[in-house]
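Sharing a chain and its predicted structure for anyone who wants a worked example. Both blocks are below, sequence first, C-alpha cells second.
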Amino acid sequence: MRHTTPISRTTRLARAAGIATLVVAAGLAGTGTALAHGSAAPAADQKVDGVMVVAGNSCSWTNGSTSAAAPNALTVDRTTINTPGGNLACGGGIAATLNNNPAFTFDDAAGTARTDLIDITGRQSFISCRYKATNIVWDRDGTSRKYINRAFTATKASGSFLCPGSVTTPAGDASMLFR
C-alpha cells in the first residue's frame, strides 16, 4: 500500500489562486504572448491565435474564428476556442472554458482595442472557478494585430470556496493576435 502525504489547506488555496489566475488569462489568451501575423495578413482569415504563460503553466489555441477582420468590431466564437470544436489546451492539469463570445472594438488611431466581457471557467481536479472581467483595454504591438492587455481585475462569479474572490492580471500577462 502506498502512503500519500496530505496536502495542506494553504497549498490548496495557493493552487486555487493559481488556477483562477490561469483561467482568467486563458480566456484572454489570455493569461502571455500570442504569436501574430503582421498587418499584411489576409483580412479574410478572420482568426485569432493565443498563447499564455501564467505561474509556469501554458495555455494556447489556434484558429479561433471571429465574426469580422480586425480592426472592424468583432466577436470571438467560443465554440472554435473550446474543445471539442477548438483546441484550447493548458498545462499543469488545468482545463479552461470560455463561457461567452467576447466582443472587441478597435481604435486604430489610438492603437487600442477593448473587450466588453470575458467569462471564463477553470477546473483543476475537483476545484472549479468562474470569473468575469469587463471593459478590458488592450494595446496594439507596433503595426501588427497583436494586442497586449493592460492590468485588469476579474471577479469570481461562482465556484468553490477555495477560489479567490477576485484575480488581478498584470499588464502584459495576456495577449491576442488577430489575423
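Comments welcome. Residues 9-28 form the longest helix (20 residues).
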